Structures are given as C-alpha cells and as structure tokens.
Amino acid sequence: MKFSDMIYTRPELDETKTALAGMIDAFEQAADAAAARVAYMAVDAFTSRLSTMAALAYVRHSLDTNDAFFDAEQEYFDQNMPLLRELDQRLELALLSSPHRPALEKEFGALMFTDIEMSLKTFKPEIVADLQAENKLCSDYDKLLASAQIEFDGKKLNLPQLAPYHQDKDRGVRKASTEARAAWFMSHSGTLDDMFDRLVKTRTQMARKLGYENFIELGYYRMQRNCYDRDMVARFRRAVIEHIVPVTDRLKKEQASRIGVPSITVYDDPFNFPDGNARPFGSPEQIFGHGRKMYRELSPKTGEFIDFMMGGELFDVLARAGKSGGGYCIDFSDYKAPFIFANFNGTSDDIDVLTHEAGHAYAAYCARDIIPAPLRQVTYETAEVHSMSMEFFTWPWMDGFFGEQTAKYKYSHLAGALIFLPYGCMVDEFQHRVYERPDMTPAQRNALWLELEGRYRPWLDLAGFPFYGGGRRWQAQSHIYERPFYYIDYCLAQSTALAFWAEDRQNHAAAWDKYQKFIDSAGKNTFAGLIDSAALPSPFEADTLKTVAAAAVKWLDENARF
User: Fold this and answer.
1) CA atoms within 13 A on the CB side of 69
2) What are the phi and psi torsion angles at 213 (to 5°)?
3) Are residues 118 and 233 in the same domain?
4) How many CB atoms lie within 10 A of CB 422?
5) What is the pLDDT of residue 542?
6) d(CA 178, CA 208)
7) Residue 461: beta bridge partners?
8) Alpha helices, DSSP H, located in 4-67
C-alpha cells in the first residue's frame, strides 16, 4: 500500500482502554498455554494497530508542523499515550506471573521477559502527568526549531535549508551563515533554557517518584540497557579521549592546513577541501534512480526492499517550510512498512540519508513478518549498527552519486566517523552530569558544555560567537531535549560499523553475510550477544577503539589524494 493511501483514524481513548482491558482479562483467564498465546497475540495485534496510528500522526505532523489537524493529533497522543501505560504494565505483570510463562518463554525467548522486567521499572501511575508534560515539552521543542525562518541570501530559510551555506567555498559565506544560525538560536535562548530546565526537573521528579536518586538510572532502563551499565559507558568515553581525540586532533590540524586557515573555527569545521566538499550531482529523482540501482545490485533482498519502498511512496526527503528538521525512520507496523523522513539540502548528507536511514528501514523490512512485536524491536545501539554499517557497505556505488568527487566523499565520510566519536561522547557526558545535578542553572550548564568542548574537541576554535563561545551549542542537539541518553548509542554503533568496514575491505561477501545475519536476529538478542555471535570486537574492550582507529587512519593516510 502507498503512504498516501494509508488511512489515519484516531484511536479513541475510552474505547481503546476498554478493548485492551478485555484482552488482558482473556490472557489472565487463559486455561492453558495455547489459550494464553492466542490471547497475547490478540493484544499484540491490537497494539500494533495503535502504534501504526500513532506513527501516521507523528509523520504527518512532521511533514507539516503548521497542519492544524495533525498538530492536534500529535498533542492527543502526547497526552493520552501515557494514560495507556498502566494497562501496558498490567499486561507485563500478567506475562511475568503467568502459569503459562515457561511455554511462552520457550517460544518467544527469555530476552523478551528480561526486557519486560526492565520496563516495569520505568512506570507507576503516579508519573502519568509527568510523562504528559515531558511529551508536550519535546513536541514544543520540535515545533520551535521547525518554525525557524532565517533571512539569508535574499531568502527565508529554515535550518535544514540554511545548512548548505555552512559548506560554501567562500569563507565569508560560511561565517555569515553560521552567524545567522547562531543568531536565531540566541534569539530563542531563554525559551530553550526554560524548556530544558523543565524537562530536567520533570524527568528528575519522575525518577524520584519511582525510587531512584536521579534520572540516570531511570534513563538507562528506558533505553533498555540490558547488557551494559553506566560504568562501562564511562570507560568507553575514557577510551575515546585516550585513543580517538588525539587522532581527530591530528585530522583537524591537517584539515586546517589543507583549506588554508590557522585553526578550525566553528564556521570552518564542516569545510574539508579547498575546492569544496563532495556534493552529489543530479536531481533528487536522479539520486533516487541511482539509489535503486545500488540496492538492486547490493543483494537480491535489498533489491526487493528498495522496490517496495519506492513503490509505496515511503520516502519524504525534500526540505520545505514548516517541515520538521532532521531525519528518521519509523515503522507502520500494520502495513509492514518502514518510512524514511529527511531534509535533502544538496550536500553529501543527502546520500548519507539514503544509506543511513535506509539501513534502519532495511532492518525493519527484514523483520516485518516476525511476531510478536517485541521480537522485531531492537535496542537503539543495535539499530544504529544497522544504519551506520549500511553507509559503508554502499561505498562501491558512491561514484554514481559523486563522480570525480568520490575520493573526497569517502575520505570525509571515514574521517567523519572518527571525528563524530568525541562529539557523541561529549553529548553523553553532558547529560550524565546534568542529571546528576538537576538544579544546575543555565549558566552552569553552558559552562559545563564549554569544559567538555575543551576535553573532547580541543582543536575547535569557537570564534567568539555568543552562541558557541557561550557554551550553548547543546541547545541545537535535539537528542538532548527529546531522547535523553540516546547519543552514546551512535558511538557504540560507530565502533561496530568501523569493524564491519574493516572486514568489508578484506572480503565483501563474507562481511555482508555477517551483516545480514546480524540484521536477521532482529530483537531476539542483546547488543552484546549480537557482537559475540558475529565475532566482532566489543566497543567495551580496552583495545577496540585503538584498533579500529588505526585501521581507519591507515586507509586515510593511503588515500589522501584529491
């Protein structure tokens, strides 16, 4: 079915609660394991329908945040989904205490029940109002950024539309566009401070109602950290400082020399080559035409996938006024269809969308027939392995997007994978320290960000901009507001994706086969279990980052010819 034909119907709260409660009653009253399975699968199908409607409302709201109807529908879900959480918890408790649990666990696996035990630690009815408030604040942040209209180059541009100017060959244009972006954020700095302050206090309040000292433990449970803890994450961050920061410092100094500037300022940071960054050629239609060819040639199954996506209108990638920023992949469960949302802007980011978000979508496509839903749902760092690895597996087709600029693209893509790691860890440490001290003032949070900039990105000259030099860069990172503790997942996944990249250099067929098996496990294994089963180096092992960085730097040194 095409996206335009997918019908949205609001699931009315009272009807939903009555139907769901009746299905849970049937599960609790099941006379035997077979009846319990039937009752549970009925709940799974019902909640699949509910999640599909929520996803359709979210996407259509993202496509046009000025659409009054879907703005109201998003607000409806923000307010009412927490009200269903009590029924979710009742089902979870019923599953754990069921006399038929051994038979269900044998069929569905022990991990599903481990994750249920973790989920139970994230909710009590007392926090419903807090969840509603959190949802509203996140939606308000998203709408604020989507509302940006910045006067530049004789046009009114939103944030994604302004982004290409940050890579302009003219340093003056880069500086002016960065100043314009920073000025917009500064003009809303008070609002952004207030939003975040309320989010921190709301999340802290929820955590304390649930018996935790602060939000960190609750945040880890919400992120389904089922195979590692905050101490392991802290060791990973220290390894990044030890093994990756010196490498990125060197790469950035080489970049400064290459583009002829004394140091890398915030407006030089995205600009890699004196004759300009690699940019894809052709119209969006031509880019998608080559993308279809790429996935058809990569493997038979990726060929089926891309035909399904394009035939189903399951992409919306052009930036326009009122559209939310960023990019994501979401699943319409009832239609067994993933959807890719993005904002093309004429830079290499457009191709990264076609590979990164398609990695998420391909994994969802491969898992779409697995039931029940928890067995399809992977943890976030696993999902990011799917996407970040796909970026590298598609390298052989990059000449069809970049032509003579392909060498520049591959160099900046691989170097960027290393350079990202310190930034991602900086975001993660910032969040840990903010939620350890939830009563920090805005000025203290900004000072903390500046401290972390000096540790993780010592090469970056903040150039005296009030937004950047004042330690406010974090306000433009949506995950800090909307998805607390998500960002380290990108870093863990990047380490694993670089391991896939190294194996792909040696034997493409074997590496792809391993990647396909990694994807096909879907939600049936933990991140650590998947790493072990694929014989990949764990990001938490002492020398992993050192090893993957050495392999990447060797390739960069050997291919620094543009």
Assistant:
1) 8
2) -65, -40
3) no
4) 26
5) 83
6) 40
7) 265
8) 13-28, 33-63
- What integer pLDDT is reported at residue 353 of this predicted model? 85
One-letter amino acid at 555 equals W
Q: For residue 357, which of 409, 416, 401, 291 has the smallest C-alpha distance?
A: 291
List pLDDT tens digits, range 476-507: 999 999 999 999 999 999 999 999 999 999 99
The count of C-alpha atoms lying within 13 angstroms of the C-alpha of 424, restricted to the half-sphere facing its C-beta, is 23
pLDDT at 120: 96
pLDDT at 562 over 80: no
pLDDT tens digits, 207-252: 999 999 999 999 999 999 999 999 999 999 999 999 999 999 999 9
Radius of gyration of the chain (CA): 23
Domain of 427: which CATH number?
1.10.1370.30
Q: Which residue matches tokens 């994750």?
A: 115
Average model confidence (pLDDT) for the chain?
A: 96
Asked whether residue 140 is assigned to any structural domain, the reply reads: no
HSE at residue 487, side-chain half, CA atoms within 13 A, is 22
Q: Give the three-class secondary structure for 151.
A: strand
Contact assessment for residue 296 and residue 306, using Cβ atoms and an 8 Å cutoff: yes
Long-range residue pairs from 231-235, CB within 8 A, at least 24 positions apart, any chain: 232/540, 233/428, 233/488, 235/540
Tokens linked to 382: 């696993």
Domain boundary, last residue among 130, 163, 192: 130
Burial 402-415 (b: 16+ CB within 10 A, else e): beebbbbbbbbbbb
* Domain-located, residue 234: yes
Instruction: Give the distance, in angstroms, between the CA of residue 445 and the centroid of all CA atoms in the same chain.
Output: 23
- pLDDT, one tens digit per residue, over 406-456 is 999 999 999 999 999 999 999 999 999 999 999 999 999 999 999 999 999
Domain interval for residue 245: 223-256+359-562
Which amino acid, 436? E
Q: CA of 187: how far to CAs of 56, 446, 500, 552, in Å?
A: 33, 16, 43, 40
Assign 348 to helix, strand or coil: coil
Whole-angstrom distance, CA of residue 344 vs CA of residue 327: 9
Characterize 189-200 residue by residue with b for buried, 16 or more Cβ atoms within 10 angstroms of its Cβ, and e for exposed. beebbebbbebb
In three-state secondary structure terms, 156 is: strand
φ, ψ of residue 224 to 5 degrees: the values are: 55, 45
Neighbours of 57 (CB within 10 A): 22
- Torsion, Cα 313 486 123 204, to 10 degrees, reads -130
The rounded distance, in Å, linking the Cα atoms of 191 and 15 is 37
**463, pLDDT greater than 80:** no
How many whole angstroms separate alpha carbon 62 and alpha carbon 317?
Answer: 12
Secondary structure element (H or E) that encloses residue 461, with its range: strand 460-461
Range with the lowest mean pLDDT among 14-23, 46-55, 399-408, 553-562? 553-562
The answer to whether the CB of 258 falls within 8 A of the CB of 561 is no
Q: How many separate domains does the chain show?
A: 2
Say if 392 falls within a structural domain.
yes
CB hemisphere CA count around 392 (13 angstroms): 28
Residue 238: Cβ within 10 Å count: 11
HSE of 361, CA atoms in CB hemisphere, 13 A: 31
Residue 160 lies in a domain: no
- The whole-number average pLDDT for the span 454-465 is 92
**Mean pLDDT, range 267-276, rounded to an integer:** 96
